[in-house]
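Now for a specimen:

…
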Amino acid sequence: MIREKLQNKAYLEALEIIEKELQKTPEDAELNYYAAWANDSLGRETAAIPFYELALSGKLTTTDRLEAFIGLGSTYRVTGNYERAHQLLEQAIQEFPNEPVLQVFQAMVKYNQTDYKAAVSQLLTLIIQHASDKNIRAFERALTFYTQNLDYRYEVTEEDTHE
C-alpha cells in the first residue's frame, strides 16, 4: 500500500502512513527507506538522509538496497557532502559491481570534487561499455584511448601543414 502510493507520486499520503508505522517500529529498514523516498521526492533532501542511513543499516530487498544507495549518494552530493557521497558510492559499487548507474553518480561526485579528468574518463568508459549506438561503437578505439589520455593533444608539425 505504501509502495503503491509512492509509485503513484502520492508522497504526502504515503508519508502520513509511514510516520504512524515508524512510531511502532522505528528501526524497520523498509519503512525508513519509504520515508527517505517520500522526503527525497518532496525535495526534502536533508530530512531524507537519516531515513536512508537507517534503511541501509537494516535488511532491504536487493532492489531497494540499490535504490537506497543511489538515493543517499545523490542526496549527499546535492547537499554538498561530497566525501560522504564518494565513500558511500564506493561501498555501493563494491556491493553492486554490475550497476553502471552507481558509477554515473560517482563520476558526478568526482566532478563536484573538481576531479574533472577522472569524472569524464569514468563517463567515457561507461559509454563505451554500455552504449549500443553504432557511431559510438565505431569510435570505441579512440574513446578508449581518451579515457586514459584526456589531455592528449596532437602536435601539429610542419609536415602536417603542407598540402
